[in-house]
Amino acid sequence: MLYQYMKKNVIQGSLITTFRCNAKCNMCNIWKNPSTASDEVPADIYNRLPDGLRINITGGEATIRTDIEQIFENLYDRSSLLELSTNGYYTDKVVALANRFPKILIRVSVEGLPRVNDEKRGLRDGFDHALRTILELKKTKCRNIGFSVVISPDNYQDLVSLYELCVALDVELATSAVHNSWYFHKHDNVETSEAALHEHERFVRALLCSKRRRLKSRLKDYGRAYFNRSVHRRLRGDQGDYRPPCGAGTDFFFIDPWGNVAPCNGSEQEWVMGNIKDASLDEIINSERGREMLERVRQCKRNCAFIVTERHDMVRRPWKPIMWVIKNKWRIWRGQPLCWE
After folding, report:
1. Quick one: angle between helices 126-137 and 91-100, nearest 10?
2. Spatial contact of 56 and 85, defined as CB atoms under 8 Å apart
3. Is the model's pLDDT at 323 over the cut of 80?
């Protein structure tokens, strides 16, 4: 069933290769709950995944793994797109991966400009390392590079400036929203913020008025503006269904450092469907346990704001983001506030 579904849909698998991390982020307690190298699934286990997936290699900090290059070697030719999420601290490792696997996507995580970033990440000179990594990546043949930022009630003041930096550097800026979940080992993050709403609207306006040089880059900014519609409604505390139906377990899945397969990273506890060391992904999803977890997804009311959900919906119903972007560009031209519905 999974393989038939993949013919119509590019599924994303996020491989949490490790819970070890060199940062001490205040919105994520992975660093307080590290995995051990001996317990983490070996690189060849990922060969059990089907071909054609969009795969995100993440952590913790994935480049801490000594076999990170082997993981990329195993998956590079078999993936529709292979991504690396990193804090960019280990510049030489990231650049080596980009040089060997130039078609990968790389996003370097920051939480704002230097002061805010280093405070939130608890990583001395973290922004300096992240920026140096981006600058070195621009010298490689890897072209799909950029920063990513988790929008929260205490870093919103840097959003517009960070976006302007990305425009000047001609790199991407991916966004997400702060969450509480088993994955982040957090249940006390503040997820709503009246103070952040004005600055976040300025940020979305900047995306809709993109000054990118290339048309493709401007269109990406428009798409990110549409996704940030969900982020904005999350920040203001909307309780309704402000994002599309969740595709956890069908559009995307996660594999933790021990090989457990879960439909998403946003649930309060990890909803384990099975383990990739014991069965194929197709067998896991179609098992009794897998079907039970998919039913939990259908009943979930957490209203997460994750780009992976929005991305699939935008592909299936492209008229929705197109009409939203056109409507709000018209409102900007008329000097009106943005419409978030």
Report:
1. 20
2. yes
3. yes
Query: Position of tokens 């309704």?
Result: 240
Kindly state the tokens that stand for 4.
């038939």
Q: 325: which 2 tokens?
A: 């972007």
Residue 94 pLDDT exceeds 60: yes
* φ, ψ of residue 150 in degrees (nearest 5): -95, 110
* Backbone dihedral angles phi then psi of residue 13, each to the nearest 5 degrees: -110, 125
Return the sign of the alpha-carbon dihedral for residues 282, 16, 247, 108: negative
Tell me which residue of 35, 43, 32 sits closest to 18, measured CA to CA: 35
CA-closest candidate to residue 153, choices 96, 112, 185: 112
Q: How many CB atoms lie within 10 A of CB 170?
A: 14
Pairing of strands 81-86, 105-109: parallel
User: Is residue 65 exposed (0-12), middle (13-18) or buried (19+ Cβ within 10 Å)?
Assistant: buried
Q: Report how far residue 169's alpha carbon sits from residue 110's, in angstroms, rounded to the nearest whole number.
A: 15
List CB contacts of 194: < 8 A, sequence separation 6 or more.
236
pLDDT tens for residues 113-163?
Answer: 999 999 999 999 999 999 999 999 999 999 999 999 999 999 999 999 999
Sign of torsion, CA 292 298 300 303?
positive
* Nearest-angstrom CA–CA distance, 276 and 249: 14
Residue owning tokens 């996507």 = 105
Q: What is the DSSP letter of 183?
A: T
The torsion angles phi and psi of 258, rounded to 5 degrees, stand at -95, 0
Average pLDDT over residues 231-243: 87
Q: What is the DSSP string of 159-177?
A: HHHHHHHHHHHT-EEEEEE
Q: Could you identify the residue written with the tokens 């981006």? A: 134
The encoded tokens of residue 18 equal 């490790």
Structure tokens at 175: 């966004």
Tell me: pLDDT of 317 over 60. Answer: yes
DSSP secondary structure code for residue 248 in this structure: B
What is the average pLDDT score of the chain?
94
